[in-house]
Amino acid sequence: MEYIRLRGTGVSPGIAVGKVLLSEGVVFTSRKETLSADQVPRELDRLNQALGRTRQQLVKLKDKVGAQLGEEHSFIFEAHLMILEDKSLVLGLKKKIEQELFKTEWAISQVHEKYMHIFDSIEDEYFRERKSDITDVLSKLYRNLEPEVSQQPDDDDERILVAHELLPSEAALRLSRGNVLAVALDVGGTTSHTAILARSLNIPAVMGLRDITQRVRDDDVLIVDGTDGEILINPPQVIQREFISKQKKYDDYRLSLQKTATLKARTLDGVRFSPLANIELPEEVQQALSLGAEGIGLFRSEFIYFQSLELPDEEDHFKIYSRIAQEAAPLPVHIRTIDIGGEKNLPQMRIEKEPNPALGLRAIRFSLRDRKIFRIQIRAILRASVSGNVRILIPMITELEEVDEVKRLVQEEKQKLREQDILFDDNIPFGVMIEVPAAAALSDKIVQEVDYLSIGTNDLIQYYLAVDRSNELVSYLFKPLHPSVLRLLKFIIECADKEGKEVTVCGEMAADPLSALFLLGLGLKNYSMNPIFIPRIKRALRSVEYQTVKKIVQKAMALKTAQEVEEYFIESILVHHPTALLMGEYPANEFINS
Ligand code: PEP
Ligand code: MG
């Protein structure tokens, strides 16, 4: 048996050693089969029956997974039911059968291809990944045209699941049985539902392996290193032993990190700070709380637009916000109104192509143009505010006029709710994101008009340093510790402090231990980040004295370059707190290898 090592993307950290279970996916037919006109009613009947069966299956799956894994995971099936009931999808299928005389299998195959095409043209990774939800629903429908054809038998042995693609519902079912040691897939990426699920169930996973399904057979021995994104097929005994010991170290590391979740978020000299979570899906709330999040610092609500091919209505928004608010209560939940436009162009929206999308009709600019959509969202947030501790957050503010206008719209929606006797929290805190340099420079004025500020350093640095945040060619210039950035951040934090208002950093900077320590020295208390980074930030901040870091930062602020700042800061911190930056890495490669 050949020993091979493959590289992919590690989407869920951890290590597993075990035997392969190869899963076969559904392949839509590539054979064009047509009908005679008199066969159409029978085909429509087949389609309707398959739709009914699929519906029943999804409802059952939703209940089963909800019971086994908790409500937060059954949400996938609600999304799938919405796709199945999507009018344009069903009408599209019927049209292909009635007008183009396609056999149902061929019709499904064609409609599937069309959707894949649309989704491929979307630049945002998360949205592209939602393709798998469509494939999932359509492949169920496809199988249900011939329900008697048997499906893969259940297997209770502990195995490593290898597949071309693991559709979300299949993932929820299989991963919930407790016998999947790890997952290795040809396709997929970090933000797929399957990856999110694997992370929250602590199942190591590597995706994007291209052709692993061609390289392994059932019962081959596999090592999955979800931390490093590596797969070892049929490794020799000595390598297996090495990885088993790595696995043990990783498990210990994880346990020690998780312990920090229950510890107080306090520096050595007793200064309180708050780790908060940035989330994209309601399913992430529980995991965030279990990792020590003291609230949801940022819910990127634009991700709702992927649960359906149609525009979400007020109820869709309301259900999601209420659910997050309830699950997090009494902790705060900051719901950011949609940040779309520019590159995040959704099929439902038909936004015109812009020459310079990052500087275009994005976020609040889009919302203030399409006010109907914006008002729906505001109403839903207001209504959800009775379910927990909800706050409104507005992205990409450039000038005070925008703040005033949004506040006016919120007041109008409040008034309408009052007239309709619909309850809401009249004191719902209202905050804005500081992401545009012009708003940053005006923080002293803006902060007087709002209840809190949230600094989106991903965009703020991009716009301040004129460095596209997603362009590899200029990423060497993207420096959170650039003295100009630090001066700006200092100013914003001081403006908020002067007014006694809360300020949070919710860009990636908050998840980097070195930057987070620097922010602490600037007086920052609230750090919002991807939940998996909370333990490491908590550990870093808990291992220092605020007063010491503050003094080091004061000196570092006088330096001229990012490199000088970084070197001086690391050296000085290590003199006083030698462990502050140790084990700050996650996934903790150095630690595992040591
Ligand atoms: C930011 O810009 O830092 C931010 C948190 O918002 P997003 O990453 O969603 O643009
Ligand atoms: Mg942003």
Give me some keywords for this one:
single chain, 594 residues, alpha/beta, Enzyme I, Chain A, domain 2, TIM Barrel, 3 domains, 8-stranded mixed beta sheet, 8-stranded parallel beta barrel, 24 helices, 48% helix, globular, binds phosphoenolpyruvate, binds magnesium ion
Walk me through the structure.
This protein is an alpha/beta fold and 594 residues long. The chain folds into 3 domains: 1-252, Enzyme I, Chain A, domain 2 (Orthogonal Bundle), CATH 1.10.274; 262-270 and 439-525 and 532-594, Phosphoenolpyruvate-binding domains (TIM Barrel), CATH 3.20.20.60; 295-428, TIM Barrel. 48% of the residues lie in helices and 13% in strands. The chain has 24 helices and 16 strands. The chain has helices at 40-69, 71-84, 87-98, 104-120, 125-129, 131-143, 168-176, 193-200, 212-215, 237-260, 284-290, 314-328, 364-369, 371-384, 400-419, 437-441, 443-449, 457-464, 483-498, 513-521, 534-542, 546-556, 562-576, 589-593; strands at residues 4-7, 9-12, 15-23, 159-163, 180-185, 205-207, 221-225, 230-233, 274-279, 296-300, 332-336, 389-394, 430-434, 452-455, 502-505, 526-529. An 8-stranded mixed beta sheet has the order 1-8-7-3-4-5-6-2. Strands 9-10-11-12-13-14-15-16 form an 8-stranded parallel beta barrel, surrounded by 6 helices. Helix 8 (193-200) links the parallel strand 5 and strand 6 (205-207). Helix 20 packs across helix 22 (546-556) and helix 22 (546-556) packs antiparallel against helix 23 (562-576). It starts with a strand and ends with a helix. Residues 150-154 and 583-594 have low confidence and may be disordered. The structure holds phosphoenolpyruvate and magnesium ion. Residues 298, 300, 339, 435, 456-459, 506-507 line the site of phosphoenolpyruvate.
